[in-house]
Write a structure and sequence with these properties.
alpha/beta, Chorismate Mutase Domain, subunit A, TIM Barrel, 8-stranded parallel β-barrel, two-stranded antiparallel sheet, 10 strands, about 50% helix, binds phosphoenolpyruvate, binds manganese (II) ion, DAHP_syn_2
Length: about 350
């Protein structure tokens, strides 16, 4: 073959490449359109029946020289890339994403502005056990300038024989203490049917790690006009956590905060493994305030201070930790709650570190 002939063929090939490029991108644009229609209809993007019929259609029209199986393999790659394109589009559209909403969301908790750049502490007992217990802790918090009070009234316990919480009575105790000491109360709700009741007593509805995938609870909390604190599931990936958050916000409730609380790994030195890098990832990917629960992530009193420092240093909006007047007799999590002198030392040390300005 003369060199001239080769040059002509090569330039034809270049042209065909450009044509392919054009049609392949034209195809991608169509797929994106289809993705948009599917997302408004809530239809699954991956459609194996449709893929099979497209592959059959290609086989019927194949005149060679490529083998049909080779072509089907190539087209399958195109289908896969197209599906990824649709998924990328979809994540761009997440309401919780920074792409959708570049500014930080600041959640107003009765005047405490969570996410405004001031780093805060959320503290209180694991479970509400009595009025005196909650009042004692709340008073100690108040003396150190902390208004965000946590305490479980409905406790999701591993064993049904463990203390399940005081229920409504626990909510009433929290409300009474909040009114007396001007605190903001955060407590977990586990059952969508308790949400209405909780509105009367709570300032923040907590959705716990075990319920991060309870979509009916997420949707019901999303329909409320009340701030929500969503904790990361025990084995949830960050993408799953973000999508759980989307459930709440997609129902209209923008007052959402996220809480990293440790995940299950093979490590047994700590109760869970604190995924500290989740904080900057969640801050980058979403516009929501991000908290770190140092109590449930470590399960160890000796690790509360260093992990709290790490959380503040890495940019968490708040740190959550448990405080009990007498942890040894606590009805839940007795190994990891601080008593009041330990709590005061914790605050002293955090302030001395320069990381906590409160
Ligand atoms: C809690 O904060 O009381 C609690 C039970 O935490 P988690 O859901 O993260 O286990
Ligand atoms: Mn606890």
């Amino acid at each position: 073959m003369s060199n001239d002939k080769l040059d002509v063929l090569r330039s034809e090939l270049d042209e065909v490449n450009l044509k392919l490029l054009e049609v392949i991108n034209e195809r991608a644009r169509l797929v994106q359109e289809i993705g948009k229609v599917k997302s408004t209809q809530g239809v699954n993007r991956f459609d194996p029946v449709r893929e099979r019929s497209m592959l059959d259609h290609i086989a019927e029209h194949n005149k060679g020289p490529f083998e049909t199986s080779t072509l089907q393999h190539l087209f399958k790659q195109i289908f896969k890339a197209s599906l990824e394109l649709q998924e990328e589009d979809n994540s761009k559209a997440l309401l919780v994403s920074r792409k959708k909403h570049p500014d930080n969301t600041v959640v107003d908790l009765k005047g405490v502005m969570m996410g405004d750049g001031t780093q805060r502490l959320v503290m209180g007992p694991c479970a509400v056990e009595s009025y005196e217990q909650v009042f004692t802790v709340a008073k100690a918090l108040k003396e150190r300038g902390i208004r965000l009070l946590r305490g479980g009234a409905f406790k999701p316990r591993t064993s049904p024989y463990d203390f399940q919480g005081l229920g409504v009575e626990g909510l009433q105790i929290l409300k009474k203490v909040a009114d007396e000491l001007d605190m903001v109360v955060i407590s977990e709700i586990v059952n969508p049917s308790d949400l209405d009741l909780a509105l009367e007593y709570l300032d923040v509805i907590q959705i716990g790690a075990r319920n991060m995938h309870n979509f009916e609870l997420l949707k019901a909390a999303g329909a409320l006009d009340k701030p929500v604190l969503l904790k990361r599931g025990l084995s949830a990936t960050i993408a799953e956590f973000i999508h759980a958050a989307e459930y709440v916000v997609s129902k209209g409730n923008n007052n959402l905060m996220l809480c990293e609380r440790g995940i299950r790994t093979y490590e047994t030195a700590t109760r869970n493994t604190l995924d500290i890098s989740a904080v900057p990832i969640l801050k980058q990917e979403t516009h929501l305030p991000v908290l770190v629960d140092v109590t449930h992530s470590t399960g160890r009193r000796d690790l509360l201070l260093p992990t709290a420092k790490a959380a503040l240093a890495i940019g968490a909006d708040a740190v959550m930790a448990e405080v009990h007047p007498d942890p040894a007799v606590a009805l839940s999590d007795s190994a990891q709650q601080m008593d009041i002198p330990q709590f005061n030392k914790f605050i002293d040390d955090l302030q001395a570190s320069g990381l906590y300005k409160g």
